[in-house]
From TrEMBL:
Residues 9-170 form the N-acetyltransferase domain. It comes from the Bacteria. It comes from Zhouia spongiae. This is GNAT family N-acetyltransferase. PROSITE patterns: GNAT.
Amino acid sequence: MVNLKGNKVFLRALEPEDIGFLYKLENDTSVWEVSETVAPYSKFVLEEYLANAHRDIYEVKQLRLAINTVSNELIGFIDLFEFDPKNKRAGVGIIILDDRHKRKGMGEEALKLLISYSFNHLDLHQLYCNIAADNQASIFLFEKLGFEKIGIKRDWKWTSRGYLDEIMYQKIKK
């Protein structure tokens, strides 16, 4: 049985009513460096995205799940991307938008649920992520959950602060 519910959060499929939150997130310039967004998204484009969000991970090679609090408040998204069933791996990314939900264990619980889903339901062998070297919160989170640093891409990302290194992490199923 697939368990996507924890004590603080649960993961669920995207719904059409998520459009307002998605629009706010995708057009928040403070997160564009993380998402590598370079231009705003229209509501039309995001509605089309939501209309196709039901498509199978094996077909579209990605899966975005909503992170909801147990009181059913949408607080962020967690993604599997570059899903590769042949080599049994996928990239993972997570974002919690509002600061009032950060540093409360919700991101940690969401990531634990996704790791379990990935290894036990999708039968993946490994997950990986790339984190900007100055993103201490994400580095702490992924290392806490057993992701190991496997390399550094020097001057990888251009930001408003100049070039930043990007750290590559990997978690292999035990």
